[in-house]
Fold this sequence. Notes:
Layout: H1 16-35, E1 39-40, E2 46-48, H2 49-56, H3 61-66, E3 68-71, E4 77-80, H4 85-94, E5 103-112, E6 124-133, H5 138-155, E7 162-167, H6 171-186, H7 194-202, H8 213-219, H9 231-246, E8 252-253, E9 265-272, E10 281-287, H10 291-294, E11 302-308, H11 309-318, E12 331-335, H12 341-354, E13 360-362, H13 369-378, E14 383-387, H14 389-393, E15 396-401, E16 409-412, H15 413-424
Parallel strand pairs: 1-5, 7-8, 12-13, 12-14
Antiparallel strand pairs: 2-4, 3-4, 5-6, 6-11, 7-9, 9-10, 10-11, 14-15, 15-16
Helix pairs in contact: 1-5, 5-9
Amino acid sequence: MSKTIQAVRGMNDCLPSDSAIWQWAETQIRNVVASYGYQEIRTPIVESTDLFKRSIGEVTDIVEKEMYTFEDRNGDSLTLRPENTASCVRAGNEHGLLYNQQQRLWYMGPMFRHERPQKGRYRQFHQFGVEAFGLDGPDIDLEVILLSARLWKLFGIQEHVTLQLNSLGSNEARQAYKDALVAYLSQHKEALDEDSLRRLESNPLRILDSKNEQVQALLHDAPDLLEFLDEESSQHFSELCERLTQAGIQYQVNSRLVRGLDYYNRTVFEWVTDSLGAQGTVCAGGRYDGLVEQLGGRATPAVGFAMGIERLILLLQTLGLTDQVPAPVDIYVTAVGDAVQPFALKVAELLRNQHLHWRVQSHCGGGNFKKQLKRADKSGAAVALVIGEQEAQRDEVSVKWLRHDNEQQSVSVAELGALLSTVLD
């Protein structure tokens, strides 16, 4: 017997039992971004490797250790996208969408990073994100945060996530802080772990994210990034904080919050939870005003965020909030006897024609009434339509309510849709 082939480690199947919550969550997301006037953009899964090296930064963990990179038959270096902001900017530059224009975009799809698989962190994972171009005030920063906050309310997790906020300032302010941080940490190298020592030379701001308790204790007396902000960035951050308060959005200023990608400046934020253990970041983003120009376009301000779909669904499951997800079937049509099957299929098609949003499943494969009713209940349907020879002869169906206390009743096919609407619509 041949060896069974299994999925690549860290790349998971989404089975029918799981797809209902995915479809439901994705539908809620699409409805929210549409309500804010954002438009969808779909970019290739594979991009030129240089795109991510130039945008994310060659000394980041993603580029150094996590990207899936390969040479194609032409010898070109290609990479499975590890994130999608760079791809959105590349597409915007390529198709003339950005210069002197305002764009509000959103995307959803798979990303790839070669990380150690664990709960809430996978090698193929799915992200939803928004990107707003051409607006440089704190009002657009506020809007993308409000959009994410609306999602948390919709999913019922608003009490389980906390907004953390910081500003990285201008590139010059960030560099001045980086120099001060390196000078401070260089005096305490003996307290740094191997990973922090490596980052001290390549990407010192990432040391602020260290999970090492000894390193975190050392950082307690490190220079504060907010004290290095330029005046314009400081004003921008102050106005954003004020507008968040006016909008009723609670937040925590975390001066150690940095993002793992080099292109961020000014506002950075994360929505975090303590309900998922170590994988506590649910959504993260910020401003990246220099990236468009960095990738060959004209200088264009930009802000956005990305949210992991797997982590969102894991949070919903952990908090027991999946009862919001509708069953995959609304109506289950049974047919008692082979002679009745054509009539039963005709009734099912009629319901689908009259009510496009109803999910109607017809029983196939025969079997007695008890077996069919058991399958109807297992499907999660709210209603079972019982059709036997007598019902077919009278052009009727018998309606059995599976999730309600209503008594079973017979109704003509002509009146069936109106009756079912009282429960299903």
